[in-house]
Predict the 3D structure of the following.
Amino acid sequence: MQKSNPKKKIVKKQSQSQPGMEYKMDPLPEFDDGSNGNSKLHNKKCVITGGDSGIGRAVAIAFAKHGADVAIIYLKSEEKDAHFTAKYIEDKFKRKCITIASDISKEDKCKSSIQKIIKEFTHIDVLVNNAAVQYPVKDISKITSAKMIKTFSVNIFAMFWITKASLPYMKRGSSIINTSSVTAYRGSPELLDYSATKGAIVSFTRSLSANLMNKGIRVNGVAPGPVWTPLIPGSFTPKKVSEFGSDAPMKRPAQTEELAPAYVFLASEDASYMSGQFIHVNGGEIVNG
């Protein structure tokens, strides 16, 4: 399927409250490229945090297209988006999609979410740590402790908690994929705490890769550039939303369907000789790392 014309303005002025809902976005993100899947993830059991919308939705759909069953973890307020994703997967690809409403900023919720999933799946082949929040501010003095703790709890602490809870149910050949960001590599003046968590994810991914190497579990990540997800109208002013992605080399934000193939690759045996690495899907920005 042809992607949006890079010269075409695809983002309109709009805003939402956090965490942002995909069904309210205009235009709606393109989450399925319409391509045919294959069996490279046949019968794999996959867990995706933030799988109701945005990048997580596109990844869940791509995994199902390639034969996987998925479980998506999301906030209760995102119920409508989550049910849409589950119905899309089950109706179109005839794969199972478990929906778990949970606040993963709390360790006990991470543990209980995985336990609920294990009752259905019994094991986990692929874990995608993807959920994130961001609260832009123009000055470090405006970052409240509460918002900073929330950002770290969702973006990086939850990765530790979800991974710890999942590892007993993962075996040799399993894969963990963590979502970082281009901001981990070049920073962001208005996203200081968010960028710090994304940098931590890079180090966590590389360290966990070495830690799990002898167990045969691969750990990699994806570092997106600007992507048209509910986080954007949920975070920025209408004017900033309308300009979103225009500073990328390709002069536009990515559609979530453009991110999903990187996750499919890392989840599959195609990436059997990769661990501790990041794929940079960022519209052409050159970064180190």
